[in-house]
Amino acid sequence: MSSGLNQTVVLHNGVKMPIFGLGVWKSPEGEVVERAVETAIRLGYRSIDTAKVYENETGVGNGIIKSEANREDLFITTKVWNSDQGYESTLAAFEASRRRLQLDYIDLYLIHWPVEGKYTETWRALETLYKEKKVRAIGVSNFQTHHLDTLLATAEIVPMVNQVEFHPYLTQDELRAYCRKHHIQVEAWSPLMQGHFLEEKTILQLAEKYDRTPAQIILRWDIENEVVTIPKSITPSRIDENTNIFDFQLEPEDITLLNQLNRNHRFGPDPDNFDF
Questions:
Q1: Alpha carbon distance 117, 210 (integer Å)
Q2: Binding residue per annotation — 112?
Q3: CATH number of the domain residue 56 falls in
Q4: Cα dist from 44 to 40, 60, 108, 128, 237, whole Å
Q5: What percent of the chain has a predicted confidence (pLDDT) above 90?
Q6: Could you tell me the residue range of the domain that residue 97 belongs to?
Q7: d(Cα 131, Cα 222) in Å, to the nearest integer?
Q8: Which of these is catalytic: 45, 54, 119, 130?
Q9: Is there a domain that residue 45 lies in?
Q10: Where is the NADP-dependent oxidoreductase domain (predicted)?
Q11: pLDDT in tens, 89-147
Q12: Residue 263 CB: number of other CB atoms within 10 A?
């Protein structure tokens, strides 16, 4: 296993979160996701990220059991879906997710999207879960600075994490600066640009320079930017390959080169304009 998989960031409540993990978006429920999770944990991964809407929480839970890992060594994230948002409905959704995952507690629970008119009440439910020690950390996903402003106006607890789309075409500089100021850890989803990184010459050139895969260049760039990252894969060799990013560093000028690729381009939905 890569010893780098033990690297953590410390959230503002003191909880240590692995800087690298496995995402399971679009990983089919059942044997496929079970095998991916079991493989990842046996390779040394400690962080697994799922969500109610991925419809694979049961498989994730089974994969955790099959891995035979100590529960306290793992960091499991799931998220409340948009149709479940609101105070009481979020509490019920959390309990359903916890049961599907077959866990006594969740390490990180996130609001999946900033549903207008609902996310402040949803956040109140997450604060309740946190105070009741049913979760070790709470946070949000896909929140822009104005969503965070609205949330912080009434929140008792500042979110510990904001999980957003982040990659060389969408560097989110303003949002990341805001999160740094408020001690909110940024986490990347779709770090590999949904495969489009293979079309970017700069990334391919850097892969050649460092004798690494293009994916490893991007994932290393995430780590150098102190952004938690959770690439998704169901292929054992790729799950292993993605971890080989802790034994090299990108030179400062190459980090700058990657930063300059920013186009404010999203491959996923826009948090200010979604209808689900």
A1: 48
A2: yes
A3: 3.20.20.100
A4: 6, 16, 19, 32, 14
A5: 96
A6: 3-195+227-234
A7: 31
A8: 54
A9: yes
A10: 25-262
A11: 999 999 999 999 999 999 999 999 999 999 999 999 999 999 999 999 999 999 999 99
A12: 9
